[in-house]
Amino acid sequence: MYFNQGKFQATVVCFILGLGSLVAWNSMLTVGDYYYNLFPTYHPSRVLTLIYQPFALVTMAILAYNESRINTRKRNLIGYTLFSISTLLVLVLDLATSGKGGIGPYIGLCALSACFGVADAHVQGGMVGDLSFMCPEFIQSFFAGLAASGALASGLRLLTKVGFEKSDHGLRKGAMLFFAISTLFEFFCVILYAIYFPKLSIVKYYRSKAASEGSKTVSADLAAAGIHNDTNLQVGFDAKQQERLSNKQLILQNMDYAADLFLIYVLTLSIFPGFLFENTGSHQLGTWYPLVLIAMYNLLDLISRYIPLIKCLKLESRKGLLIAVLSRFLLVPAFYFTAKYGDQGWMILLVSFLGLTNGYLTVCVFTVAPQGYKGPEQNALGNLLVLFLLIGIFSGVALDWLWLIGKSGF
């Protein structure tokens, strides 16, 4: 059928665009060992994340509030372009300073971290809103791509550590390779979203359907696909637009889903990545230990995002989701006592479970919540849920500093 043509290609593109949404930021997080070597007293893993999040959160709040009036195509292209430029500038900054530490380069790195936050708000909210009125497989694939960016970054980091460990300035060479690859990938995402994605039959079908239901955000994407949507500007259009639920109504009807996402990411970011770099002690793996922990989290986070594709394993009960989300907070004492008394095997197991539950619950919420709404409402709800996700991330990043209480030198 016409509306199913190109479904596989669209699913693959959603995965790649999801990967491009976080690959640059995950590259910065994954080379944390390099930044701890460069800026040993500045807590780079925690500080860079803490700077990134307010910019992402404030930008997302503004964009979510004005979602119905924003050109989604322009929003996403701005986001991916900003990712490309910022990633390139991280590379340029390091080359210009010859890989030397100090407060100047660190401030520059913090500024670029803020740019990543602004880009993330453009892309993640824009893409999730856009995909929320398409089939659930697309949004699942996009979130799998988000997780894959972490898994890919971790895998490459382990390879570069092996390849450059014994060479001069090995950490730096590995980090520079990371950002070079990320820059090229972000540019590829710009081309893919601008040219290929809007012309797929199934994408054109869903966007045309959303436009017929009153959505104005898809007009530029339809025009890029050669569809001029003037036929939808008819008498019934304004009436349909007025029937759309307001953002406040959408939030009130989906407050449990918003709470789920907030609580999922409060917990995850209060542990990952700062706690894993600074609070897990020294073990047999030595300098490999935090990299292995990050890699295991990212790998299980990725795998778990495909579990909801198996219908019988997908959690769709609203009450069940909330119970599962609240149960994860038992991980806080588990991490505390494992870091204090356990060995590295137990910590690797806990980190894996953290990633497994994070990815699985995220996909369940985002694929279930938009069901039953019209296109413009699904777009708005997608943006609002991403906003609560980012509030959770920001809160988690702030709470992550509590692990440092009582540590010497803090």
From TrEMBL:
Pfam families in the record: Nucleoside_tran
Organism this protein belongs to: Glycine soja (Wild soybean)
Superkingdom, natural source: Eukaryota
Subcellular location: Membrane
Protein known as: Equilibrative nucleotide transporter 3 isoform B
Keyword Protein biosynthesis attached: no
Membrane-spanning intervals of the chain: 12-35, 47-65, 77-97, 103-123, 135-156, 176-197, 257-276, 288-308, 320-339, 345-369, 381-404
High-level lineage: Eukaryota, Viridiplantae, Streptophyta, Embryophyta, Tracheophyta
Key words, A-Z: Membrane, Transmembrane, Transmembrane helix, Transport
Topology versus the membrane: Multi-pass membrane protein
Family, similarity comment: Belongs to the SLC29A/ENT transporter (TC 2.A.57) family.
InterPro entries in UniProt: Eqnu_transpt
GO CC, any one term: plasma membrane
MF (Gene Ontology): nucleoside transmembrane transporter activity
